[in-house]
Backbone:
């Protein structure tokens, strides 16, 4: 089978993917959920003209410099003044208080002097000054939150002010993660001959959760067809939207994932991609469950998950920002010519004094080296057959998640 270009592989992974169903969720549980439809305000904010400062509500025509006005009452937030302000009258008012009828300005308390029921104006009032008009923030019916937005903490505050106790959001994608390999041992457990510590799942679970997915860990399947098939069935039984497998995606006698997937009725869209790291990646689908078979090498596994799993989760979540953004940068060192595969070089990023972003690929790009992946800030993307490039050459960078 020919190697599939990265762009074609991503298109296959996202083919026919649609946002998941809508559900109403309490506001406190909506952080980083994705809105399923536009949301309009149920109220006007502020509902009435309100004072922006502590001071005195006055009629601007009366409150000239050195004027003396009679104080006839007080307004605090939540306690409006019921009378209409008359000529040469003032009302003591506090921030958030409703402007009394008849008043059209606020003189801040620093610009006044008070003696009993008389307030002396030291600086003339100006109509509208220190008053927040009704609806200056928003009015009933204003659409302030749009479908596809991933809700921030500020959005939640806005939704509450709009009088929404809950919001319509897309269901979180359910991701099931199945590792394969007799050589894998959990961290902290004794290692036998030829065994290694299982590490891929920790990064993949964190990456999926950071994108808003619910993650089920299916553990480690032994290198047998029965064990791998059983893991796939557990994913289906859990109603997973996405099954992520790690390991067993290559061509060795013990690489059984593709065989197990096919035995379970998974229709394979591709196997092997023209990229480095991560050539032996596969993708298929069985019913509504989409399957991404990641390589076992930890760097390959992570880079493929970033490039393919993340956009799929975002699509199913209903987000607008599906695709990872590339940034322009300059190479911090010489790089050699590329072959037929698209290359994703782990790189350290720095900003020069002139503001230019500089990406310096690490010396060793082996797909098993987690230390270099952890130290990297981004991936330098090099096209297939790109020529050798000296330091300072413009390049494209994908930032790694923080």
Residues:
């Amino acid at each position: 089978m020919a190697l599939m270009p990265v762009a074609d592989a991503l298109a296959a992974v996202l083919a026919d993917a649609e946002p998941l169903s809508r559900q109403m969720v309490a506001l406190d549980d909506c952080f980083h959920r994705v809105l399923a439809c536009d949301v309009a305000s149920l109220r006007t904010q502020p509902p009435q003209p309100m004072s922006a400062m502590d001071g005195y509500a006055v009629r601007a025509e009366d409150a000239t410099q050195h004027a003396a006005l009679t104080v006839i009452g007080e307004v605090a937030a939540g306690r409006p003044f019921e009378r209409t302000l008359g000529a040469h009258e003032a009302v003591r008012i506090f921030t958030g208080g409703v402007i009394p009828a008849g008043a059209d300005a606020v003189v801040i308390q620093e610009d006044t002097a008070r003696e009993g029921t008389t307030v002396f104006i030291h600086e003339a009032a100006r109509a509208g000054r220190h008053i927040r008009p009704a609806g200056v923030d928003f009015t009933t019916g204003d659409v302030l939150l749009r479908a596809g937005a991933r809700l921030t903490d500020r959005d939640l505050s806005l939704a509450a002010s709009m009088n929404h106790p809950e919001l319509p959001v897309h269901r979180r994608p359910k991701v099931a993660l199945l590792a394969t390999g007799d050589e894998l041992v959990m961290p902290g457990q004794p290692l036998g001959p030829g065994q290694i510590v299982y590490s891929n799942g920790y990064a993949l679970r964190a990456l999926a959760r950071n994108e808003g997915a619910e993650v089920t860990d299916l553990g480690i399947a032994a290198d047998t067809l029965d064990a791998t098939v059983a893991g796939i069935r557990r994913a289906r039984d859990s109603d997973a939207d996405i099954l992520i497998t790690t390991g067993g995606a290559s061509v060795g006698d013990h690489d059984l994932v593709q065989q197990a997937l096919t035995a379970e009725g998974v229709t394979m869209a591709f196997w092997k991609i023209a990229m480095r790291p991560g050539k032996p990646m596969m993708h298929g689908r069985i019913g509504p469950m989409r399957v991404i078979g990641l390589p076992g090498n930890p760097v390959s596994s992570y880079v493929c998950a970033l490039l393919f799993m993340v956009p799929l989760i975002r699509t199913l979540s209903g987000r607008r920002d599906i695709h990872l953004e590339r940034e322009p940068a300059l190479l911090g060192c010489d790089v050699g010519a590329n072959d037929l595969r698209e290359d994703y070089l782990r790189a350290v990023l720095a900003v020069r004094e002139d503001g230019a972003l500089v990406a310096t690929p690490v010396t060793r790009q082996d797909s098993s080296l987690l230390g270099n992946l952890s130290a990297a800030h981004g991936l330098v993307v090099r096209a297939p057959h790109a020529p050798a490039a000296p330091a300072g050459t413009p390049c494209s960078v994908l930032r790694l998640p923080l």
